[in-house]
Amino acid sequence: MPEPAATISTIAPGHPELIQGGMGVAVSDWRLARAVAVAGRNLGVRALGVVSGTGLPVMLVDRLQAGDCDAVRALNAFDPGIAREIMDEYFVEGPPAKRRGKLPPKPEVLITGNEATKARMLKLAVAAAYVEVWLAKEGHSGPIGINLLEKVQLMHLPVLLGAMMAGVDYVLVGAGIPYQVPAVLASYVRSEPASYRLDVSGAEDKHVLTLDPRDFLPEGESLRRPQFVLIASHHALAMRLAATVEVDGFVIEGPSAGGHNAPARGKLTGEDGQPIYGDRDRPDLGKIAELGKPFWLAGSYATAARLDEARALGAAGVQVGSAFALCNESGLRQDIKREIWKRIAAEALEVKTSATASPSGFPFQVVQLEGSLSEQRVYEARNRLCNMGHLVEAYQKDEGAGGGIGFRCPSEPVDAFVREGGTEASTVGKLCLCNGLGAAAGVQVPLRPR
After folding, report:
1. Residue 288 is inside which H or E element, if any?
2. Fold of the CATH domain 18-347
3. pTM reported for the whole predicted model
4. Which of 59, 387, 430, 434 has the fewest Cβ atoms surrounding its Cβ within 10 A?
5. How do the domains of the chain map onto residue ranges?
């Protein structure tokens, strides 16, 4: 029977004034989220620690192959039977040289795989989310949230279920329009099957994923609904969702926020390829306040003065990402942190907003570092491959190709992407964020081409 974390969270009266950004893959891991929540309690600050919900099966498998005892403890708290299945396949006890170098199945097997493969992937994904949240919540009473990218649709049902089974307090979703998430949360609370419609390019029919929580919940056990927070850049999206689904709050991100950003409404880019944001991109905070829900401001709000400014504008507080990414407790590799710290001290850090880097289609903030994919020579020298498959696009195959649903990514080999119906122009400048962000967090992933 899944166990709750050591101490179930009781959220302090009122919402958090500080939200630690949920940065994937595993930059915002359980250690960072837990440290933020514990520090908030110790300092008398309402602080929300947030784990990234992106790539969790990859992270769990990577940790198990490194002999991570914390992951094993959390797995056994989830379900000893499922834990044994997962550990038999992935756990390695001993020195790093004994690592098996295995990858979990790609998320797309939930559509393309046989029933055994689908069941295996569901177990791994539910367990991975449970493990991350359970460890983040262990031993304290501070609130913990999970951050999801709406674009990574294949993983939403199992990740949300695992997070809720571990007692997650907040679900924050951005990089898309997450209008389906509240219904999923409500279905799980009622112990009923949840569904999520998959966006499939070129498809006329609906394609819906389903998951029954009773396949994982012990009989008679129920789940508590977490707060649902929409991450948006503009009042228009906030108003649209608030009018149609149950939203508990909003994080309003400006264009200087790290990670993915909203496209500029003018769709203009400068000579350096960066989006040009203007007056049309500025949210009307008055209209957001009129919705009667708490909201937080993000994007260059990592100072006490800016927190005061946000409160004066009616916000409940702020969300901070980059400062937490660079702290000792984050999952970002120490050598990368040291180089960024050095450049910040020398006032020489350069960050560019790339309109092309992310396969998701959203602008993405890229730190300019030697030896990274931010350098054109490194980008051109890297062999393209798709071996994780979290940011893939689902598409309707032609009848001549067998029909059904296929999956493609503009950062995979160009000929493969074109063969799958994509255009060569769409591949220009695309980075593999699955591998790039995973490598930045120290994930050791074996090569497995599409």
Report:
1. helix 285-289
2. TIM Barrel (3.20.20)
3. 0.91
4. 387
5. 18-347
| Per-residue model confidence as pLDDT tens digits over 76-109 | 999 999 999 999 999 987 765 556 678 899 999 9
- Helices of type H across 21-79: 30-43, 56-65, 69-78
Residues 6+ apart with CB under 8 A from 51: 22, 28, 29, 30, 32, 33, 132, 133, 136, 144, 145, 146, 147
pLDDT above 90 coverage of the chain, percent: 65
Q: Are 150 and 389 in contact (CB under 8 A)?
A: no
Residue 421 DSSP SS3: coil
What CA–CA distances, in Å, run from 369 to 67, 340, 346, 374, 432? 31, 8, 14, 6, 16
Cα end-to-end distance, the chain, whole Å: 37
- On whether the CB atoms of residues 21 and 321 are closer than 8 A, the answer is yes
Question: Dihedral angle at the C-alpha atoms of 359, 364, 370, 373, nearest 10 degrees?
Answer: 0
3-state SS, residue 161 = helix
Q: Are 179 and 150 in contact (CB under 8 A)?
A: no
pLDDT tens digits for range 160-174: 999 999 999 999 999
Neighbouring residues of 369: CB distance < 8 A, sequence distance ≥ 6:
336, 339, 340, 375
DSSP element (H, E) containing 366: strand 364-367
* Rounded Cα gap, residues 164 and 185, in angstroms: 9
What DSSP state is assigned to residue 7? S
User: Which residues 6+ apart lie within 8 Å of 396 measured at CB?
Assistant: 200, 201, 202, 203, 204, 403, 405, 406
The greatest distance separating any two alpha carbons of the chain, rounded to the nearest whole angstrom, comes to 63
Answer for the pair 241, 229: CB distance below 8 angstroms, yes or no: no
Q: Which long-range contacts (CB under 8 A, 24 or more apart) does 292-296 make?
A: 293/242, 293/247, 293/248, 293/249, 293/250, 294/15, 294/248, 294/249, 294/250, 295/238, 295/249, 295/250, 295/251, 295/252, 296/19, 296/249, 296/250, 296/251, 296/252
